[in-house]
């Protein structure tokens, strides 16, 4: 039996890859590379599936927040930057025979009005959303179906 569609919040610094960069990319698709946290890696490797929904979140910027929606369009595969000694994501302990790090391809579904942290925190239905919890610094976190629907309906005015 196929797994039900899941939802994710994926953080990116706009200086590295913004929602506008995703919109300009070939086929509006990018490899989500550079994840160097084991828990976030495990989400990509073990749990993400083609067709899963993504909330594209701008982080470490003057106005952090959810900037749009995307979709996972590939299974996890080795992140090539881990093997490139010139890359800031190089990992000398990783090898092509036993890669430590993976990425998935993400395709833009829609640029949306930015939903800032204050707006997200003000919505009671999102009180337990992981990105809003103290100490949560993961670049990838699961989003419940209820949280996804609340964001799409309450803030953007559509079902999905």
Summarize the structure.
With 160 residues, the protein is α+β, with helices and mostly antiparallel strands.
Q: Roughly what percent helix?
A: 10-25%
Radius of gyration: 16 Å
Q: What's the end-to-end separation, in Å?
A: 24 Å
Strand content: 25-35%
Determine the CATH superfamily: ph1033 like domains
Structure overview:
The chain is an alpha+beta fold and 160 residues long. It has one domain: Roll (ph1033 like fold). Helix content is 21%, strand content 27%. The strands form two sheets. A six-stranded mixed sheet has the order 2-7-4-3-1-8. Strands 5-6 form a two-stranded antiparallel sheet.
Describe the structure using short key phrases.
160 residues; alpha+beta; ph1033 like fold; six-stranded mixed β-sheet; 21% helix
Strand and helix layout:
Elements: E1 7-12, H1 19-24, E2 29-31, H2 38-47, E3 53-58, E4 65-72, E5 77-78, E6 102-103, E7 105-116, H3 117-122, E8 140-143, H4 145-156
């Amino acid at each position: 039996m196929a797994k039900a569609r899941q939802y994710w919040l994926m953080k990116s610094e706009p200086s590295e890859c913004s929602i506008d960069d995703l919109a300009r990319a070939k086929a509006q698709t990018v490899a989500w590379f550079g994840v160097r946290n084991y828990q976030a890696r495990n989400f990509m490797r073990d749990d993400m599936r083609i067709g899963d929904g993504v909330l594209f979140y701008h982080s470490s910027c003057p106005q952090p927040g959810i900037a749009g929606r995307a979709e996972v369009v590939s299974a996890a595969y080795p992140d090539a930057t881990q093997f490139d000694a010139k890359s800031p994501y190089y990992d000398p302990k990783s090898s092509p025979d036993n890669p430590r790090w993976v990425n998935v391809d993400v395709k833009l579904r829609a640029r949306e009005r930015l939903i800032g942290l204050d707006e997200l925190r003000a919505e009671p239905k999102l009180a337990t959303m992981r990105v809003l919890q103290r100490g949560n610094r993961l670049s990838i976190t699961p989003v419940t179906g209820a949280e996804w629907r609340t964001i799409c309906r309450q803030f953007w005015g559509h079902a999905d």
